[in-house]
Amino acid sequence: MSNDKRFLEVQNIHKEFGNVLALNNVSISASKGEVLAIVGDNGAGKSTLVKILSGALTPDKGKIVVGNKKFSSLTPKTALKAGISTVYQDLALANSRDVAANIFLGRELTKRGFLDNKKMHIEAEKLIDGLEIDIPDVRVPVAVLSGGQRQGVAVARSVYQKGSFFIFDEPTAAMGLVETNAVLKLIKKLANQGYGIIIISHNMAQVFEISNRICVMRHGKIAGLKKTKDTTTEEIVSMITGAGEIL
Amino acid sequence: MTINYINFIKKHSAKILLLLILMIMMVTLTFLSEYFLTFKNIKNILNWASTYLLLSVGMTFVICSGGIDLSVGSIMGISAVVMGFAIKGGLPVGVAIISGLLTGTFIGAINGTLISKIKINPLIVTLSMMSIVRGSVILLTDGRPIFGFDASFTFFGGSESIFSIWGMEGKLINIINPPIAIALITLIIGWIILEKTKLGRYCFVLGSNEGALRQTGVNTSIYQIGIYAISGFCAALTGFIVAARLNTCEPLAGTGYEMDAIAAVVLGGTLIKGGSGSIGGTFIACLIMAVMRNGLTILSISSNYQKLLTGLIILVAVAISEIKKKKGIE
After folding, report:
1. What residue of A is the nearest CA neighbor of B328?
2. Which residues from B are below 8 Å from A163, CB to CB?
3. Is A152 among the domain residues?
4. pTM metric for this prediction
5. CA B23: distance to chain centroid?
6. What are the chain B neighbours of A93 within 8 Å (beta carbons)?
7. Helix H segments across chain A?
């Protein structure tokens, strides 16, 4: 990846919880159009890193660079404004409302002060089609959708809100095979369209299937960063478990 | 085309069922009493329905948003008393009415502020407000009603058709007197706000997933305050109509009315937990409640049964929606 495509960068990030050092001098960058997978054992610091990127946590030290803007910390609002969207499985949808209403939530289209439902339905269909998300009707409440479709709705909303960088935290946890494939397809599609992706996953097969690079975290540090095509599952697993350190 | 037809029936199945219940009740009562299906009695029913309706439109917003407003009965009382004081103090009737309506809206806004800013449970806020407001009204009036107004005030509660002014004597249209007209206008405006504006949209989202709305950067407090202000306004309007009808601003007016409003809203298919509901359902439910009340009266059944039935309606309506949810229909 060349430097000019680099979009999101964290530099020397430190984060302590009491005397637990969750992140120790972590620096990593991600680019538009690539899928960066972050893997690691429980407690390795993946979630802390993601929370800092989405603005939910404030780092003790270090810098976050988004595009050409530097931040010492982000809030959920500034993260969104900078184009970083974190896609949660369930949190962000209003179940009783339809797909279009959820996509346009907070940014409703209006005509003379009244909601322009017709236009929102048409635009929602376009967005869904453009991302090849499999939702037959944008007028159904999201409560009846499957987990994968719901993530599709959340992604479509972020795309509409001019998000350019997506963070998926275990996007396929508790999902069936068909659903999982739909979500992976969506993530690839987003990368192909030039969006940047960070995905956290425990599933090695999945990581190898969709990522361009794999970042291994261990004990709050970056234990290794590999291009997916230049590494193997064995190598990554040994980095996760720290098997290489003993030898 | 047929699919649209089926979808329409599916979407409105609850309302269609309520309409059927209403029709069955009306047909039964027609057979049971010769007085039921008369012009005068239908007017009576609509008169009752108009007070239920005014109160329930505001309550629909509140319950859709996942809240509850127990203070509406007390707000009816204080708004009417403010109007009474203002008129007796020599203010023009129009100014008096507006100050009464503003009082109700303001109390509603206070409810909304406490609920959204300090995050107190709506049940606690409005239950306390119910007692605070009722206590204040009784202290202000010393418990005595204010009565004796001229036609410029009592007109709004009158049974005279609004069309008689223009000399229109068509019989059926003359059923529309000022309370019924005001209720219908409120119903239409309420429907437009709930279905066609951001406030209405966010009302449903607040009841469904408040966090989702906040995440998108919407100032949820303003909308929550607005919703309770609407409820306060509707309660004040109801207080006004009842006072004008009785030619009396009674400090205890509206006691227990919150139960009727809640019953009408949940009977109309609005989920008690919020997130889903409709003004149309509330409208039909208000008609059912008014017919029920009227039926009990003309069949000379004790009015104590009305209270019992109102409580039953709330319980059964909520139970049905919970059972439906468990079975995954909703």
Report:
1. A144
2. none
3. no
4. 0.87
5. 22
6. 209, 212
7. 46-54, 76-82, 99-103, 117-130, 147-160, 177-192, 204-210, 233-241, 243-246
Task: State the CATH number of the domain containing residue B84.
Answer: 1.10.3470
* Short-list B97, B67, B43, CA closest to B294: B43
CATH number at residue A62: 3.40.50.300
What does the pLDDT look like over B271-287, one tens digit per residue?
Answer: 999 999 999 999 999 99
Question: Could A97 and B205 be called an inter-chain contact, meaning their C-beta atoms sit closer than 8 Å?
Answer: yes
What residues pair up with A36 in beta bridges, in sequence order? A198, A213
- Give the mean pLDDT of chain B: 91
Inter-helix orientation angle B72-88/B257-267, to 10°: 130
In a domain? residue B163: yes
Among chain B, residues having any CB pair with chain A shorter than 8 Å are 192, 196-198, 200-201, 204-205, 207-209, 211-213, 215-218, 271, 275-276
Instruction: Specify the pLDDT at position A146.
Output: 85
Q: How far does the CA of residue A218 sit from the closest CA of chain B (Å)? A: 31
Instruction: Give the range of the structural domain holding residue A66, as residue numbers without chain letter.
Output: 1-74+196-247
Does the beta-carbon distance from A94 to B197 stay under 8 Å? Answer: no
Q: Would the CB atoms of B275 and A94 count as touching at under 8 Å?
A: yes
Tokens found for residue A187: 């993530």
| Closest C-alpha to A39, from A236, A188, A238, A235 | A236
Which member of A94, A110, A115 has the closest CB to residue B205? Answer: A94
Mutation target for B interface from A96, A107, A110, A114: give the one with most B CBs within 10 A.
A96
d(CA B87, CA A160): 55
pLDDT confidence bin for B87, thresholds 50/70/90: very high
A110 contacts chain B (CB < 8 A): yes
Fill in the DSSP letter of residue B90: T
Rounded to an integer, the average pLDDT of B20-36 is 93
Q: Is A76 on the interface with B (CB under 8 A)?
A: yes
Cα-flanking dihedrals φ and ψ of residue B271, to 5°?
Answer: -70, 135
Total number of domains constituting chain A: 1
Handedness of CA A140, B16, B187, B168 (dihedral sign): positive
The 10 Å Cβ neighbour count of residue B1 is 5
The number of beta carbons lying within 10 Å of the beta carbon of residue A236 is 22
Q: How many domains does chain B have?
A: 1
* Residues near A64 by beta carbon (within 8 Å), at least 6 away in sequence: A8, A9, A10, A11, A13, A52, A53, A70, A71, A72, A73, A74
